[in-house]
Amino acid sequence: VEVAAIVDSLEGHREARRAVLLALLTGMRPREVRSASTAWLWRDETGAIAEIQIPAEFTAGERQKTGVSNRLPVVGMLREALDEVVGEGPLIRVGENALRSVLRRRSKRLRLEVECSGTETFRHTPATWAKDAGFTDDEIDVALSHFPHHSTAARYYTRQAQAVEPKRRIFEAVEARLLDALKRIGAQEKPRE
């Protein structure tokens, strides 16, 4: 419910809300969220944003922690937030300090037990919610880009980093739980098309 309360409280702050949804509904690491670009968005044949494709090296000197490119599904709430981005360039157009400040102020105003100070908090939530939904540790590790270092698992991960549909099932379950929590706190859900 606390995660939903923060998401709901960010309705008027599109940049912070988009950053939180990127972490929560894709499992992106904070530096990936900060570096995310419109160039990473892949659209399907209808023109809808369907995936985020993170290159192995996404900015000068910034590499994926895993060392391989990663394809991530885009689910409903995130698609709506990404559709608001105008033009080319960064998906998040506020600095890290501004983002942290907004999240800290919101968590204080909501009187949350743990102060939220960045998107890392929201990267951990999908693992817990996916586990509660019955997904295995291996499925969750692949969805969150937890890279195993032994050779057989490393080869497996490299192949799975490109597999979008297993990740989509996890993040659809995470989104469903978020939507349910938003309903329970009385948040105003936008109508879906």
Polypeptide structure, described:
52% of the residues lie in helices and 9% in strands. With 193 residues, the chain is mainly α. Helix 2 packs antiparallel against helix 4 (76-83). The radius of gyration is 16 Å and the shape is globular. The two termini are 25 Å apart. The model is unreliable at 189-193 (pLDDT under 50).
Shape: globular
N-to-C CA distance: 25 Å
Radius of gyration equals 16 Å
Tell me the β content. 5-15%
**Which blocks of ≥5 consecutive residues have pLDDT under 50?**
189-193
Average predicted confidence as pLDDT: 86
Number of strands: 5
Number of H- or I-type helical stretches: 9
Helix amount: 40-55%
Structural class: mainly alpha
Summarize the main sheet: 3 strands, antiparallel
Strand order of the largest sheet: 1-2-5
Strand/helix succession: HHHEEEEEHHHHHH
Task: Name its key features.
9% strand, single chain, three-stranded antiparallel β-sheet, mainly alpha, disordered C terminus
List the helices and strands and how they pair.
Elements (H helix, E strand, L loop, with lengths): L1 H8 L4 H13 L3 H6 L5 E3 L5 E6 L2 E3 L2 E2 L6 E4 L2 H8 L12 H14 L10 H13 L4 H7 L7 H10 L3 H21 L9
Antiparallel strand pairs: 1-2, 2-5, 3-4
Helix pairs in contact: 1-9, 2-4, 2-6, 7-9
Short note summarizing the structure:
This protein is mainly alpha-helical. It is built from nine helices and five strands. The C terminus is likely disordered.
